[in-house]
Amino acid sequence: MRGFDWDDIQAFLAISRAGRLTVAAQQMGVDHSTLSRRVAALEAALGVKLFDRSSLGFVLTPEGERVLSDAESMESLALRMRHRLDDASIGLTGSVRIGTPEGFGTYFLAPRIAQLSSAHPNLEIELIANPRMFSLSKREADLAVSMTRPAQGRVYAHKLTDYALGVYASKEYLTKHRKIATRRDLLAHPWVGYVEDQMWSAELNYLPQISNTLVPTIRISNVISQAAAVSGGVGLGVLPCFIAHTEPNLVRLFRDEIALSRSYWLVTLAETRDVARVRLLADFIREECAGDWFLHD
């Protein structure tokens, strides 16, 4: 086997994660023909075919799957070396990216970023608040907030907090529609829920905890839009209390009888968790989540 360039490994990793040559090239900031040549060079050096190419994109071959694990280990080692040098030479500068669920990122973390930014003006913070899981091994983020504890991977998970959820309706809806006096009355009203195939975590399946017969008539893919719909009077919905309390038009129903809870976990990658800027952001989030802020409405 002849030698290969580290750039070839990076090209391989980029394509395996993006699935498409053009997308990977854009992410790496190189021409797609350059990326193609690098992968071809790596295949020639290893003597194996790494991808099956089709109109749908690039799919790893069995040999490519085996190479992927070693390539990610090489990448992890390179990252550790680079971050250790960064910490020693430039301190708390550079970029750190956190991926969070949209509710946590929008209503909790975003308003607090100013505290961190003013204390560390040379630190670049990237917040991705989207309704999905983030893969740290694919370098989608440096750390992430998840609704479940990861079951596998080279990651560390720390429970941040539990948070409360309740059943809500708008004041206008309650004055214009059939009275809700008992839990049974809930079944006679329209409900807002998740688009089933967009429910990115099983923890979002709230309605069976209210009643096994509840089926949403309005399905929305993210909690922020759900809160807006319920506030607008479209029907009833289960919402995190820390989001609902920002909408003065919302009223919580059966506060004592229907009290749901979920958890947030902070996840960091094993090889970067001790990098100064990653550790700083992780510590900041843990400190801000302390107390009972998420349990109040």
From TrEMBL:
Q: Does the keyword Transcription apply?
A: yes
- The chain positions of domain HTH lysR-type read 4-61
Biological process according to GO = DNA-templated transcription
**What would you give as a GO molecular function for this chain, any one?**
sequence-specific DNA binding
Q: Which protein are we looking at?
A: Transcriptional regulator, LysR family
What are the record keywords, sorted? DNA-binding, Transcription, Transcription regulation
- Give the UniProt family note: Belongs to the LysR transcriptional regulatory family.
Q: Which InterPro entries does its entry note?
A: LysR-type_TF_proteobact-type, LysR_HTH_N, LysR_subst-bd, WH-like_DNA-bd_sf, WH_DNA-bd_sf
